[in-house]
Recover the amino acids of this structure.
């Protein structure tokens, strides 16, 4: 069967793991999953000339959903009670930048539109500690009530908190022409060994585990057109599919996951930097009832993607 | 993150013939719950209107169209709101903040300060907003509002959380968090113990634009947009393929014979036909459609192709040697000596034919409605605010009983508390006050048997007016005596509880569950004849025995406004023995009585309900009945 003309349909849930930082300089790369400041490119179809994006910046809002300067803080002894509402928005300047880039690449008649994530979660952190979170679920993006206690900053009426947003959404991608068979007993046993003692599996571990699964034959790949291997673009899609299926069968909802990244400084010393990844809770004790299963990637597949975006929110006394 | 997909699948197969045949369509429902498949919220983007704003409020709603009935819409609140009740001509919120300041009996000279915040929240939309939502639907979808039906989204599960921070402001885990009602019209009741600081902060917050944050996480079922695939059959190429390949022909025929049980054959046949361009399968992308299902759904098409192109299998003796060769495929064909031939091309289909498959699946969606509970909108009514925020301050001795909230006591007709006061070691009870609670209503005081109108959070009376005999008795030598009477369909249940005077903690709370085990029977899933005439169940006779006591009740469909409905859940209150470590068994004898069928005993008759595998929350389940 010719991979390019395979027309049957498959559906797959895949979490592309992309960690971006809304506070970092914007990388203007028009690609799905890329964060453009306060938004994330969700889908791009050059044939239908449609580009969609997700709002990713957490901003304080008033009771009617209008953007406010800060969340309110009420002093309670040495602590403050932070209260107010937040919304997820895309800044108009970022939308304008995306629109311009889209027009330059696709044409003047390109349609750029905001979509809602399928589910989303928000975490607020003060001094690196979670102080509030909205669980990962669907729901309205505006007027999300927030209330928590935190230590009051000394001598300051304003404090900046980190916001972390996990967004997931669905899109379809073309076929990659493989049939993939999973040995669930081997996968469950080996993934359990990769998980932390708390049972968390970081997305980087998951990605390298996906590569290992193919090498170790815990996942068997048959290319439908009979080739022994495939170009990098195809194998990366295959890896994503494997990750997706492992997440679906063995793991739970994604959540922000702090990871330590070691970098060499100019003077040659190794320095640690706290970074953020997606983490998944391992479902220990899961019954691997179906010891083997097969997915067919000779079809267009429906993927679910996830992204983490870091930003900041201001709190004012 | 992934929503589980249910076994319910609606598959529609549309067959559009371009040449020889008339257009036709077939609709298949696969799996259980076919009715559900046709009364489900649609998950297609075009059937959702988000954030309908209600003017003058901060409330917004999302409405979702039914997947099958175009006139039916469901609304989903984006935030919970304070539950309101009608008190005469006035609408009042179910909300009380009691701030207190008492002398600390344990630490003379010091005070005990704090607060109790009680309120009820709901997800139901106020009646006036339904009209606004209908207008919004009408404008966006160009439908006459008169032809729009609007109802609350049926929920599958719901969980509620108060995410106000415990610690400096809230002294213990709030009561009321956890499993929430799945009917939007039901209220969610909360009670929060506040510290001294908390009482001050929340007194200010509930009058502000924020308040107490409440979050309801719920799931509902929806029908995904149609997904699937389209199959284009080129009859000339198919005929040619079948004619040339006798082994394939034999396998295809074998598949036609055994049909659905031969899915592997279906896959092979599909792939061979595709590779030879006899059929072309194109994609209609969507959620929850698994590639592995394709061959199962293709079986009717492959069968059609076989029927069109193949002669019926014949024994060798009947085969015209000019048409059929010896079978090439082994197994059944070879062994039995059957053979298969293609039909004459003139008798077979020509041109192309397109089959379109639409698959929709019922999927669970999880969403969150969150919002602040406050009394901001009532601040203009000072008298009402005084009722809502009560301060019990130091300066006079007062006896209090904080009345409990019975969020899930809807089985009781009423609960009455008669509260008196007595001196430790003496029998005489003074100064009785009463309050009564009914489902869906707040506690109200009862004076001379007559219910008052104003709701109350507590029974209280000043000790300064007590009888002279105990006027000067120190507080720690006084006891409250609460007589509790629960009236329900099955029985009247009474008990008495002696309590220390309220000193700012909740140890003085009463709850009838402290004195009784509540055995609940839910018969709403039973097939009641009076509700559905085709069914046969007339009544359920229930008897429970616990020691010397016996409790009887006959459960029947209930009559309301001239129409029969399944009965409400039924409760028996079985008194707890004084020695709780050695409870008496509760032995049931339950009989299903039918019209036109023999009686059936309940499957757990004669077994102790205290056994963990039965329990006190019992759903009478017809699926366990033996076949008739």
């Amino acid at each position: 069967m010719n991979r390019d003309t395979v027309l049957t349909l498959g559906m797959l849930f895949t979490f592309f793991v992309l960690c971006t930082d809304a506070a970092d300089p914007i990388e203007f790369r028009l690609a799905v999953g890329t964060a453009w400041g306060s938004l994330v490119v969700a889908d791009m179809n050059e044939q239908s000339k449609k580009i969609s994006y997700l709002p990713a910046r957490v901003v304080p809002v008033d009771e009617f959903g209008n953007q406010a300067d800060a969340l309110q803080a009420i002093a309670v002894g040495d602590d403050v009670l932070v209260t107010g509402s937040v919304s997820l928005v895309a800044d108009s300047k970022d939308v304008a930048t995306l629109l311009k880039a889209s027009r330059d690449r696709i044409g003047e008649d390109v349609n750029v539109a905001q979509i809602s994530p399928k589910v989303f979660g928000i975490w607020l952190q003060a001094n690196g500690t979670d102080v509030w979170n909205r669980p990962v679920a669907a729901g309205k993006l505006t007027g999300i009530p927030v209330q928590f206690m935190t230590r009051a900053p000394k001598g300051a009426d304003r404090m900046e908190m980190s916001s972390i947003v996990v967004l997931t959404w669905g899109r379809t991608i073309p076929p990659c022409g493989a049939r993939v068979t999973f040995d669930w007993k081997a996968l469950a046993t080996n993934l359990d060994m990769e998980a932390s003692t708390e049972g968390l599996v970081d997305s980087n571990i998951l990605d390298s585990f996906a590569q290992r699964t193919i090498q170790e034959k815990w996942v068997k790949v048959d290319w439908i057109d009979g080739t022994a291997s495939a170009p990098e673009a195809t194998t990366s899609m295959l890896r994503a599919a494997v990750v997706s299926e492992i997440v679906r069968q063995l793991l739970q909802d994604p959540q922000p996951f702090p990871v330590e990244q070691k970098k060499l400084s100019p003077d040659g010393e190794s320095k640690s930097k706290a970074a953020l990844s997606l983490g998944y809770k391992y479902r220990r004790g899961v019954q691997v009832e179906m010891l083997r299963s097969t997915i067919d990637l000779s079809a267009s597949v429906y993927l679910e993607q996830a992204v983490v975006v870091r930003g900041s929110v201001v709190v004012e006394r | 993150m992934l929503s589980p997909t249910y076994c319910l699948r609606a598959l529609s197969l549309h067959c559009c013939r371009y040449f020889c045949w008339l257009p036709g369509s077939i609709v298949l429902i696969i799996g259980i719950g076919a009715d559900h498949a046709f009364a489900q919220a649609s998950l297609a983007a075009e059937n959702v209107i988000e954030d309908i704003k209600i003017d003058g409020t901060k409330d917004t709603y999302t409405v979702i169209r039914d997947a099958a009935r175009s006139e039916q819409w469901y609304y989903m609140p984006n935030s919970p709101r304070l539950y309101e009740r009608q008190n005469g001509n006035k609408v009042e919120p179910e909300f009380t903040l009691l701030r207190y300041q008492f002398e600390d009996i344990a630490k003379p000279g010091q005070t005990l300060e704090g607060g109790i915040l009680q309120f009820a929240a709901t997800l139901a939309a106020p009646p006036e907003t339904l009209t606004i939502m209908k207008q919004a639907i009408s404008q966006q979808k160009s439908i006459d509002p008169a032809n729009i039906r609007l109802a609350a989204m049926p929920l599958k599960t719901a969980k509620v959380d108060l995410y106000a921070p415990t610690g400096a402001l809230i002294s213990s885990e709030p009561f009321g968090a956890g499993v929430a009602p799945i009917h939007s019209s039901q209220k969610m009741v909360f009670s929060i113990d506040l510290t001294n600081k908390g009482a001050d902060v929340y007194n200010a917050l509930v009058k502000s634009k924020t308040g107490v944050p409440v979050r309801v996480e719920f799931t509902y079922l929806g029908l995904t947009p149609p997904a699937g695939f389209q199959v284009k059959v080129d009859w000339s190429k198919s005929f040619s393929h079948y004619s040339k390949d006798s082994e394939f022909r034999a396998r295809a025929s074998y598949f036609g014979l055994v049909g659905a049980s031969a899915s592997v054959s279906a896959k092979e046949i599909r792939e061979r036909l595709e590779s030879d361009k006899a059929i072309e399968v194109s994609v209609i992308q969507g959620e929850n459609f698994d590639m592995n299902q394709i061959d199962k759904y293709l079986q009717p098409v492959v069968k059609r192709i076989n029927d069109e192109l193949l002669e019926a299998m014949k024994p060798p003796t009947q085969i015209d040697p000019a048409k059929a060769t010896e079978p090439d495929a082994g197994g059944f064909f070879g062994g039995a000596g059957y053979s298969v031939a293609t039909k004459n091309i003139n008798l077979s289909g020509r041109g192309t034919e397109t089959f379109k498959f639409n698959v929709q699946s019922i999927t669970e969606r999880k969403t969150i409605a969150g919002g602040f509970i406050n009394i901001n909108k009532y601040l203009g009514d000072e008298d009402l605010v005084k009722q809502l925020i009560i301060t019990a301050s130091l300066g006079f001795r007062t006896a209090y009983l904080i009345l409990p909230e019975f969020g899930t006591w809807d089985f009781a007709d009423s609960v009455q508390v008669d509260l008196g006061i007595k001196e430790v070691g003496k029998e005489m009870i003074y100064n009785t006050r009463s309050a009564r609670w009914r489902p869906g209503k707040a506690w109200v005081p009862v004076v001379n048997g007559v219910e008052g109108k104003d709701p109350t959070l507590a029974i209280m009376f000043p000790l300064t007016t007590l009888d002279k005999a105990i006027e000067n008795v120190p507080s720690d030598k006084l006891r409250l005596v609460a007589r509790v009477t629960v009236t329900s369909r099955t029985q009247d249940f009474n008990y008495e509880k002696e309590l220390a005077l309220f000193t700012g903690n909740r140890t003085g709370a009463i709850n009838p569950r402290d004195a009784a085990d509540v055995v609940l029977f839910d018969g709403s899933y039973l097939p009641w004849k009076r509700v559905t005439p085709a069914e046969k169940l007339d009544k359920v006779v229930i008897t429970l025995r616990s020691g010397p006591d016996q409790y009887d009740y006959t459960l029947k469909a209930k009559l309301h406004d001239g129409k029969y409905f399944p009965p409400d859940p039924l409760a028996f209150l079985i008194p707890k023995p004084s020695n709780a470590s050695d409870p008496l068994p509760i032995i049931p004898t339950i009989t299903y009585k039918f019209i036109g069928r023999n009686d059936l005993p309940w499957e757990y008759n004669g077994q102790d309900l205290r056994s963990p595998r039965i329990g006190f929350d019992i759903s009478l389940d017809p699926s366990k009945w033996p076949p008739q």
The CA atoms of residues 13 and 307 of chain A lie 14 Å apart. Residues 176-297 of chain A form one domain. Chain A touches chain B through 57 residues (CB under 8 Å).
